[in-house]
Amino acid sequence: MRTGIFLFGGVEMPDAGAGPPAATDRRYSNEEMWRATEQILDMGVLSDQLGFDSFWLTEHHFQYEGYEVIPNGILTGAILAERTEKIRIGMAFNIVPQWHPLKLAEDFATLHNISGGRAILGVGRGTVPREAEVLGSKIGSFDNPDMANADEFNRRQFDEAMQVIRLALDNETFSFHGDVYDFPPPGIPDRGGFVEELTLVPRPLYPYETWQAITSPPTLEQVPRWGWGGVFWNNHHSFVKHHWERFAEIYNDVHGTELSQGEKRLLVLSVCIDDTYEAAIDSVRNGHDEFWKFLGPYGWSRGYMGSDGKPSAPGLIPTLEDSLDQKTWAVGTPEQVAETINFYNEQLGGLENLLIFPAMPGDPYSKVADQLHRLSEQVLPLI
User: Fold this and answer.
1) pLDDT in 10s for each residue of the chain, 383 residues
2) Pairwise CA distance, residues 142 & 301, whole Å
3) CB 54 within 8 A of CB 24
4) Under DSSP, is residue 267 helix (H, G, I), strand (E, B) or coil?
């Protein structure tokens, strides 16, 4: 099993929890947010020293609230690559519609090559309208009144951008002419002729993996068709099993290759470990509630099961007890957390890729470091 660490990367918040302040009422200084960036890098170095397989960052912009302060995980990942030896470096996720696709391809190839082939291409469509609409896209967030039209445009833009990125990364020369992107556009003069094709410089010197979050039925159908890996998070355990198996069915039908039980699928699990169950519950509650205060309005809980056995309506703000019941959170002693991981290992017929989310919004980085040690030294030996 390859086990990685995933951090949102936020500012320490002594007032995290379900009550005030509102998610948008905090405002941190530039110095406080940069300090968080330095601490995130320290956690990446520690993850390498502790022997984790991968370390994943996330891309977000303009979050003065201090939740996620890394706007460019590729650039931050290049710094981390210079400070580490073995750990692979991923993005959960590069928000593709917010990039020029060829700039994303160039930057990823640079990170991949400078790290000796340790970069992971993690891609997603986005969450936050504040980011998307400033940076040249739209997003069908739950709190977006124009959700359906925004989502339709985002999907077209994402699909074309990913075609461009893969063509550019995987071929000596390429061209692409779609509805959203046109590379190269016609009529560009170049030393007596016209540009007909382009060559990306640099391109990857090493094989690379591509992973995308599975957040909707259309994405579940599309990702295995493209041959990428699928990432599953914040879904009721029975939904995970159903989607896990459906992913393999589609992949097998399209590619004519039968996946092993855990191949090309990655489970993300939020974790908090302490000496006793009660201490772990006390430790994680405020961070859990801050997580959902922040992300619930964007519809992130739609993978939870409602009382009717169907996916819950978007906008649900789960309690910690809800999350424990749904098995989206593993909380307790090392033995109890290992038991939840082993539950998934058995239910899914074998986990090949596990990504641990061990830091809730607002957690001090001393606590994050403690969680990394506990995972490495107390939990993983029990898996």
Assistant:
1) 999 999 999 999 999 999 999 999 999 999 999 999 999 999 999 999 999 999 999 999 999 999 999 999 999 999 999 999 999 999 999 999 999 999 999 999 999 999 999 999 999 999 888 999 999 998 876 666 667 888 899 999 999 999 999 999 999 999 999 999 999 999 999 999 999 999 999 999 999 999 999 988 999 999 999 999 999 999 999 999 999 999 999 999 999 999 988 999 999 999 999 999 999 999 999 999 999 999 998 888 999 999 999 999 878 999 999 999 999 999 999 999 999 999 999 999 999 999 999 999 999 999 999 999 999 999 999 99
2) 11
3) no
4) strand
CB atoms within 10 A of CB 102: 19
Provide CB contacts within 8 A for 257, sequence distance 6+: 251
First-to-last C-alpha distance (Å) of the chain: 9
Give the residue carrying structure tokens 């990913």.
162
- Could you give the count of Cα atoms lying within 13 Å of 77 in the half-sphere of its Cβ? 37
With a CB cutoff of 8 Å and minimum separation 6, the contacts of 191 are none
Nearest to 190 by CA among 178, 198, 200: 198
| HSE, side-chain direction, 13 A CA sphere, residue 236 | 16
- Beta carbons of 17 and 286 less than 8 angstroms apart: yes
Name the DSSP class of 108.
H
DSSP, res 379: I
Q: How many residues does the chain have?
A: 383
Residue 122 forms beta bridges with which residues? Answer: 211
Distance CA 364, CA 11 (A): 8
**Among candidates 6, 5, 4, 28, which has minimal Cα distance to 16?**
28
In angstroms, how far is CA 151 from the centroid of its own chain? 19
